[in-house]
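Long-time lurker. I teach an intro course on protein structure, and each term I like to show students one example going from raw sequence to a predicted 3D structure in token notation. This year I'd like something fresh instead of my usual example. Would anyone be willing to generate the tokens for the chain below so I can use it in lecture? Attribution to the forum is fine with me.
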Amino acid sequence: MFNLKPTRFLVTVCNEIYNIIRLTAAGAVGSAVLIPFAIGAAGFTAAGITAGSVAAGMMSSAAIANGGGVATGSLIAILQSAGAAGLTAGATAAVASVGGAAGAVLGGAADLFSSNNSSGPQDPSDSDDGDDVELENDLRNSESKELMPR
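-- Reply from a regular --
Happy to contribute to a lecture. Here you go:
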């Protein structure tokens, strides 16, 4: 999978893990912040359901299906409650969890398809300039020295 020297392998793995963590955090925070705005934009507001909005269409369909009313606990009722009063702490945690999971999947997919893992042409700036050899020599020398003189 990796055609890299050990030191570059470690750096590559750390960068991949960092990218997944970064996108997981971005997904969690982004979803927790953006979902209330999306609910409002759909027409679920503190003043009620906005006429002509997606929410109005949903409410109309639900009312027709239920014989003229919207059922308690239905998706329409939950979204209107969230639009009017905001998300509860539990709902915010759930939204952030789903967003974080989506970010982690996105991070893993981005890593899987990134050019860093391909066996194709490498970046010319990533040439072998002998740094790895020097590092390996330093590691060998440090291992051969005694940690505590006698």
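Some talking points for your students: The radius of gyration is 27 Å. Confidence is low (pLDDT under 50) at residues 119-125.
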